[in-house]
Specification:
mainly alpha, two-stranded antiparallel ribbon
């Protein structure tokens, strides 16, 4: 995922740990992630919102603990209307990437599950991204990776606090 058009990692004349440098690097990384997601959406005949929904569903319950994603939670997380969530889920269900499952304890509650077909499709498509992430991780010590993981976790917590439901 690198090439002659890739931005350099260094920012000339900037403090590499300063807020400006962090902001630029985070924007660059976000832009690259968005480009990759857009390419995946286009390759699969999906909308970018569909890919964002897939990601939200996958990340909602990554280790099997806690509650699965629901349409209401997905609506709030993606900041879209109920109708847009329904249309998105209809598309994803129609192509076999998401399953709607009624909760056993309360049939009014719908849980959203990442279908096995989606796991295989995304695993194959995003394997180069995983390899790139693993290569980048290889440039750091386990202690440095622990700090990076802590920073990313804190950054994600702060971003959630900015969300306006």
């Amino acid at each position: 995922m690198t090439g002659p058009d890739s931005p350099s990692t260094a920012l000339p004349g900037c403090d590499p740990t300063g807020l400006q440098s962090f902001a630029v690097q985070l924007r660059r990384m976000n832009g690259e992630f968005n480009r990759i997601a857009q390419e995946f959406a286009h390759a699969q005949g999906l909308h970018l919102t569909d890919v964002q929904a897939l990601t939200a569903i996958l990340d909602a319950n990554p280790d099997g603990a806690g509650e699965p994603m629901t349409p209401g939670r997905l609506r709030r997380q993606l900041n879209i209307t109920s109708g847009a969530v329904t249309a998105c889920l209809d598309r994803l269900e129609r192509v076999g990437l998401v399953q709607r499952v009624r909760a056993a304890g309360d049939r009014r509650v719908v849980h959203l599950h990442f279908a096995e077909a989606a796991r295989a499709l995304t695993r194959d498509y995003f394997r180069p991204l995983a390899r790139s992430a693993d290569t980048a991780r290889g440039h750091f010590t386990p202690q440095e990776l622990a700090v990076i993981a802590r920073f990313l976790g804190e950054m994600n917590r702060e971003l959630v606090l900015l969300r306006r439901d």
